[in-house]
Specification:
By secondary structure, this protein is an all-alpha fold. It has a single domain (62-230), classed as Orthogonal Bundle (Tetracycline Repressor, domain 2). It is built from 12 helices and no strands. It has helices at 2-25, 32-39, 43-49, 53-67, 76-93, 95-104, 107-113, 116-134, 144-166, 171-182, 189-192, 199-226. The radius of gyration is 20 Å and the shape is globular. It comes from Streptomyces andamanensis. Residues 8-68 form the HTH tetR-type domain. InterPro entries: ArpA-like, DNA-bd_HTH_TetR-type_CS, Homeodomain-like_sf, HTH_TetR, Tet_transcr_reg_TetR-rel_C_sf. This is ScbR family autoregulator-binding transcription factor.
């Protein structure tokens, strides 16, 4: 049990270290040696969890979705807003989310990773908009698929501009402005008037996520034990 928990912590440390190096250096310039130094693990431990640099980058791309995971909202447009605000906040603070943005963009990255992260963000946005449509939150003419593409592309453009001009210092405020411009074109007035789209909302969401993480951490040992989970991990992988 303790060995498995150490392995999970080791994997998390490797991902965080890899993300910080990818974010600072880019994929091509990043080296396994620097990632090992920052993670403070052995080469055997790293290769147990990630057999190559590309696998590390794919791990960072996949981990971003856990970093910006929200509890479902009753109002799906509020869920869309909250996800956008949380992602903006995380992008400023969390190297995993920031590195994933860098790894997701650019033609050379598409060659390596196939653009799956961008496609997944569009698909996630489309799912929320379909749910919003089913609940009567969208104007009759709104096509969830087309709107998901536009919302995702516009959000990406905002973060790229913010990164270039202010190192993302104003990203949350710019995302708020983006939603203020986009939402009136898709939301029915009754829903639009109830949506909370403010920088302060981002702080509330962060506190919610942090509290949920603390609650899950307290429950995790009990649930793992309840399911009788036993995983043998090579000593070098800890």
């Amino acid at each position: 049990m303790a060995q498995q928990e150490r392995a999970i912590r080791t994997r998390h440390a490797i991902l965080k270290a890899a993300a910080s190096v990818f974010d600072e250096r880019g994929y091509e310039a990043a080296t396994i040696g620097e990632i090992l130094t920052r993670a403070g693990v052995t080469k055997g431990a790293l290769y147990f969890h990630f057999p190559s640099k590309q696998a590390l980058a794919e791990g960072v791309l996949n981990a971003q979705f856990a970093e910006v995971s929200l509890a479902p909202r009753v109002c799906k447009l509020q869920e869309l807003v909250d996800t956008g605000l949380l992602t903006a906040d995380r992008m400023r603070r969390d190297p995993v989310v920031s590195a994933a943005a860098r790894l997701s963009l650019g033609q050379e990255m598409r060659t390596l990773f196939g653009g799956q992260a961008v496609s997944l963000w569009i698909a996630t946005t489309e799912k929320v908009l379909h749910e919003a449509k089913a609940q009567g939150e969208l104007l009759p003419h709104v096509d969830p698929a087309a709107s998901a593409w536009i919302v995702s592309a516009a959000w990406t453009g905002v973060q790229v501009y913010s990164h270039t001009l202010s190192d993302r210092a104003d990203l949350v405020e710019r995302v708020v402005s983006l939603f203020e411009h986009l939402l009136p074109s898709i939301a029915v007035p009754a829903v639009l008037s109830r949506l909370v789209v403010t920088p302060e909302r981002a702080d509330e969401i962060v506190r919610e996520i942090e509290q949920r993480a603390r609650d899950e951490a307290e429950r995790a040992p009990e649930s793992v034990q309840a399911f009788g989970l036993r995983t043998r991990v090579p000593a070098d992988a800890e």
